[in-house]
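Q: I'm building a small set of examples for a reading group on sequence design. Run inverse folding on the following structure and report the sequence directly after it, with nothing in between.
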């Protein structure tokens, strides 16, 4: 059955989440398929940030730590994130970056492993994990005398031996959009005696996550992707309460102290997740992230994460089907799993040549996706399209595919201006 523009419009008319789009300042004429890289500005964020700057900072100055509740902002924002990832209140803080939080939790996991299973000397991860995760793990392994073992996704279970202290995976792969079965993989790690660290950078706010149901040990994630927290938004960290008070995290700064304003020379870690804070937090950025979370949590009264997931799959299904039919014969492949159980909220297309230029030509036409370089046959170049169900509609998908078809049919992408690489792709 062929899908038409009118079918897409009908899907939008029936969409119970349609009104959420009005919470975002989408630039006119842009179909934004890069919310997995930098989420869209929530309408409330500009005024909230202005208020934090002019009134809270400008007028209330240092009193704001108490009066405007700056001091607890990482916990309050963390509690909102917790609702999206199956964590309890008081278990998440919004703080630092994903890279830094990963360093903290990996290090804590190694401390716990040192107590419970000192003969285990490996961290296992996926070779195609987001590189910063691998760099952090590599640095920590060097520092602590551990070995970092990298495998392909299908090799994860085989790599779980009696040597493994920690399995560290990203739930949804940034390049392919492939999603792990969190509960099953965590159970497999535990069955082999390893601790499980999840990176939720491409999951939080995009797909349902239930850290408690999965019995995960540690998790980190990103604030500026599907949580729409703005450029460089604080990331988040969660630790299973059974581990939180067992050890220090390595960046034992004063914001993680039990009594920071006692100014004692020795360190006493705060109970609970607060000990995963290090130093003074970026209040202006936290306020913007808070607005992004409010916009995401507005979905709660409309069916919540399961409604968002249903729409996300409908959007990605539609995109895949339309590309197959309308862009047939143009050498595009699909890197994202067709199986819903294994698909995040993005679709990645492959092409042996011109992927970068095609993405640039699309951006020129108002369809913003991005390019991720491959490294040969196993990982070809990728045209990456993220689908944030909060603000995208089915008609957007139609127009995006029509622009892609045009760029391919006209060979517009071959123009030199689209073939010049920028610093950030
Ligand atoms: C986006 C992303 C990051 C980003 O880390 P930063 O410290 O915020 O730069 C880390 N890991 C994964 C898997 C990501 O997708």
């Amino acid at each position: 059955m062929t899908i038409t523009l009118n079918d897409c419009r009908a899907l939008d008319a029936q969409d119970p989440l349609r009104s959420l789009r009005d919470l975002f300042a989408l630039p006119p004429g842009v179909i934004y398929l890069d919310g997995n890289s930098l989420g869209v500005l929530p309408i409330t964020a500009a005024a909230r940030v202005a208020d934090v700057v002019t009134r809270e900072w400008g007028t209330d100055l240092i009193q704001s730590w108490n009066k405007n509740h700056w001091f607890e902002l990482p916990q309050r924002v963390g509690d909102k994130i917790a609702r999206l990832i199956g964590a309890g209140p008081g278990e998440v803080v919004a703080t630092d970056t994903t890279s830094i939080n990963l360093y903290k939790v990996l290090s804590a996991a190694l401390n716990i492993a040192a107590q419970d299973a000192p003969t285990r000397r490996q961290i296992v991860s996926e070779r195609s994990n987001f590189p910063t995760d691998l760099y952090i793990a590599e640095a920590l392994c060097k520092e602590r005398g551990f070995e970092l073992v990298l495998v392909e996704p299908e090799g994860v279970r085989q790599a779980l031996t009696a040597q493994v202290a920690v399995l560290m995976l990203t739930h949804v792969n940034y390049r392919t959009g492939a999603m792990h079965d969190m509960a099953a993989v965590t159970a497999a790690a535990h069955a082999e005696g390893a601790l499980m660290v999840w990176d939720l950078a491409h999951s939080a706010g995009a797909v349902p996550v239930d850290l408690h149901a999965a019995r995960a040990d540690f998790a980190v994630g990103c604030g500026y992707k599907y949580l729409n927290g703005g450029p460089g938004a604080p990331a988040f960290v969660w630790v299973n309460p059974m581990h939180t008070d067992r050890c220090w995290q390595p960046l034992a700064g004063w914001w993680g102290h039990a009594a920071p304003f006692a100014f004692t020379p020795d360190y006493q870690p705060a109970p609970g997740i607060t000990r995963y804070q290090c130093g003074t937090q970026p209040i202006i950025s936290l306020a913007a992230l808070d607005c992004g979370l409010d916009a995401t949590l507005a979905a709660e009264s409309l069916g919540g994460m399961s409604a968002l997931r249903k729409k996300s799959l409908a959007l990605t299904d539609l995109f895949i089907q339309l590309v197959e039919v309308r862009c047939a014969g143009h050498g595009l492949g699909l890197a994202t799993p067709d199986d819903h159980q294994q698909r995040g909220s993005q679709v990645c297309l492959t092409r042996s040549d011109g992927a970068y230029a095609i993405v640039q030509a699309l951006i020129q036409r108002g369809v913003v996706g991005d390019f991720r370089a491959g490294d040969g046959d196993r990982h070809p170049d990728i045209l990456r399209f993220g689908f944030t169900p909060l603000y995208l509609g089915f008609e957007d998908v139609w127009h995006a595919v029509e622009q892609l078809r045009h760029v391919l049919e006209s060979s517009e992408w071959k123009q030199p201006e689209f073939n010049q690489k920028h610093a950030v792709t």
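The longest helix spans residues 304-326.
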